[in-house]
Design brief:
The chain is an alpha/beta fold. The chain contains eleven helices and 13 strands. It folds into two domains: 1-94 and 286-305, 3-Layer(aba) Sandwich (Rossmann fold), CATH 3.40.50; 115-274, Rossmann fold. The strands form two sheets. The chain has a seven-stranded parallel β-sheet with strand order 8-7-6-9-10-11-12, with helices on both faces. Strand 3 (46-49), helix 3 and strand 4 (67-70) form a beta-alpha-beta unit. Helix 1 runs parallel beside helix 11 and helix 5 crosses helix 7. Bound molecules: NADPH dihydro-nicotinamide-adenine-dinucleotide phosphate (NDP) and 3-hydroxypyruvic acid (3PY).
Length: 322
């Protein structure tokens, strides 16, 4: 049995697979055509990905393909309907990176509240007296955080924000009920209520055909002009040009952004040009703990599909789609 890693993965993934008699091939391809050639040549049983696209052409290139594994949570880079229709299982790592992303979200909020880019830039440029001219910085305590999407990550953010920082947390999630949620969150029936009442809006919903492009100018228009927008979920859920305009026009105060409509972005991207934007290059889940956990969970999923053996532990269990 052979599994193709679309990029190099953490050692933990390879160790689990090799221990279970599965050969690992690490790809050096960067284009769909090259991946297809490799998959065709090696007739692999599995594909292991991070955020690389896994397309029907790639899945169709090996008659032996039984499993796609994702080191992470968002499955928007995998054509799941194609996999399902062709009997290919998709395994992933729900919750595996939730704490890292929740901590990163808090970091983005704090950095916005303290105008970190501005202060850091001016300090490095030689002005250590910026405290005398600094304005518009504030504590998180007492502020209202509005979550759009209250799943695993949203609920962890809520716990940290409410219990760690004394924030009020409200949320919108059309698929969850109040009694299924962490007590830190007060669920609102309408997204508009959350947008109007919050000092921070933080996005934690997946990118799906239903959510793509659903946060735009009308939503930014409802936010307080003193509010900041945080996105460590997916860039294409937001109409990025509307976010840029809302920031450039001062319609909203700032933003903390980890994900973009088209990744990777270059140094000339408008979001990187604004001091009121704290930007990271999709690193919210990039911690040692999260990478190891997600790699192990996804690798366990591959072993279960390819060998039929159950090796998982309840708290660290991969989820199968299709
Ligand atoms: N920046 C990064 O590195 C990372 C980003 N992510 C992103 O974060 C997303 C959330 O992750 P996680 O919390 O673990 O996932 P979960 O599935 O646990 O939570 C997502 C929640 O959003 C809900 N939801 C779906 N559509 C909407 C909507 N229109 N409005 C409000 N809520 C909605 C979902 O409902 P339902 O389940 O019923 O669809 C679910 O309750 C991932 O899908 C991924 O894209 C995740 C990890 C790392
Ligand atoms: O888990 C995910 O969805 C990620 O974006 C990891 O980088």
């Amino acid at each position: 049995m052979k599994v193709l890693f679309l990029k190099e993965m953490d050692r933990s993934a390879k160790d689990i697979l090799v221990k279970n008699g599965i050969q690992v091939i690490v790809s050096h391809s960067r284009s769909e055509a090259d991946y297809v050639r490799e998959i065709q040549r090696d007739q692999v049983d599995g594909i292991f990905c991070r955020t690389e696209e896994v397309t029907p052409a790639m899945m169709g290139a090996s008659a032996r393909l039984k499993v796609i594994a994702k080191q992470g949570v968002g499955l928007d880079n995998i054509d799941v309907p194609y996999a399902t229709n062709n009997g290919i299982q998709v395994v992933y790592a729900p919750g595996g990176n939730a704490n890292s992303v929740a901590e990163h979200t808090i970091f983005l909020m704090l950095a916005c509240a303290r105008r970190f880019n501005y202060v850091d830039g001016i300090f490095r440029a030689g002005n250590a007296e910026v405290r005398y001219t600094l304005h518009d910085t504030f504590e998180l305590k007492g502020m209202t955080l509005g979550l759009l999407g209250c799943g695993r990550i949203g609920q962890l953010v809520a716990q940290k924000a409410a219990r760690g920082f004394g924030m009020n947390v409200i949320g919108y999630d059309p698929y969850l009920k109040q009694d299924a949620l962490d007590a830190a969150i007060t669920l609102k029936k309408r997204k508009e209520e959350v947008l109007r009442e919050s000092d921070f809006i933080s996005l934690h919903m997946p990118s799906t055909p239903q959510t793509r492009g659903t946060v735009g100018a009308a939503d930014f228009a409802l936010m307080k002009p003193t509010a900041s927008f945080i996105n460590a979920a997916r860039g294409d859920v937001v109409v990025e040009k509307d976010l840029i305009l809302a920031l450039q026009s001062g319609r909203i105060l700032g933003a903390g952004v980890d994900v973009y409509a088209h990744e990777p972005i270059g140094p000339d991207h408008a979001l990187l040009k604004m001091p009121q934007v704290i930007a990271t290059p999709h690193t919210a889940a990039t911690t040692e703990q999260s990478v190891k956990k997600c790699c192990s969970m996804a690798a366990q999923g591959i072993v279960e599909v390819l060998t039929g053996q159950k090796i998982s532990f309840p708290a660290n269990h991969p989820k199968m789609v299709s």
